[in-house]
Amino acid sequence: MLSEKPVILTLKINPEAAAYFTDLRKQHFPAERNYLDAHLTLFHHLPGNEDTIFEVVKTVCAQQKPMVLQVTEVVSIGAGVAFKIESTELKQLHKNLQQQWQLWLTPQDKQTLWPHITIQNKVDRQTAVQLQQALSLDFKPFEIQGLGLTLWEYLNGPWQKIQTLNFKN
Q1: Can you give the residue range of the structural domain that contains 13?
Q2: Would you say residue 81 lies in a domain?
Q3: 105, 107, 113, 111: which is closest to 89 by C-alpha?
Q4: Would you say 165 and 57 are in contact if contact means Cβ atoms under 8 Å apart?
Q5: Domain assignment of residue 61, yes or no
């Protein structure tokens, strides 16, 4: 499992929600830049050669129960659109991991978590504003579930799945 390449940590969400967001991403994310299904990133750049990262993820998943997340609104991210996610439990989990991994965190990963799922990025501002407005018209907040954690190896664009660990039932 150890690698010299950076590792990304994402939250595994329930399959129905993942399919919904991925479908939107396939429709609206520039195809030449869309290497991934929709995802909720927790950490963007962890060292792939540190056993501790993998051990902590394994331990956390063995102790953490699935969590409910609130999808609260469609938001602009400048050159794109995302769905804002609210969850005190997810933010606490992230903070806990930050404390354990402080030594290895990049400035981006030291920031307070702003949970979101991006469905469009790297488009002109007008295109992003139009999509955000269109999706907001019929939007009603809804719930999804966080079911586990996935580790990915970053391959300078695409990601390769290393492992998905489910939260305990």
Answers
A1: 7-68+90-116+146-166
A2: no
A3: 113
A4: yes
A5: yes
Length of the chain: 169
Tokens of 38: 């929709």
Cross-strand bridge partners of residue 22: none
Residue 102 lies in a domain: yes
Digit-by-digit pLDDT tens for the chain (169 residues) are 566 889 999 999 999 999 999 999 999 999 888 889 999 999 999 999 999 999 999 999 999 999 999 999 999 999 999 999 999 999 999 999 999 999 999 999 999 999 999 999 999 999 999 999 999 999 999 999 999 999 999 998 889 999 999 999 7
Best CA proximity match to 56, nearest among 66, 46, 44: 46
Strand partners, 86: 70
Q: What DSSP designation does 102 have? A: G
Q: In 11-159, where does DSSP find H-type helix?
A: 15-28, 51-63, 88-101, 107-110, 125-137
Residue 24 lies in a domain: yes
Tally of domains in the chain: 1
| pTM score of the predicted model | 0.95
The tokens for 141 are 């907040």
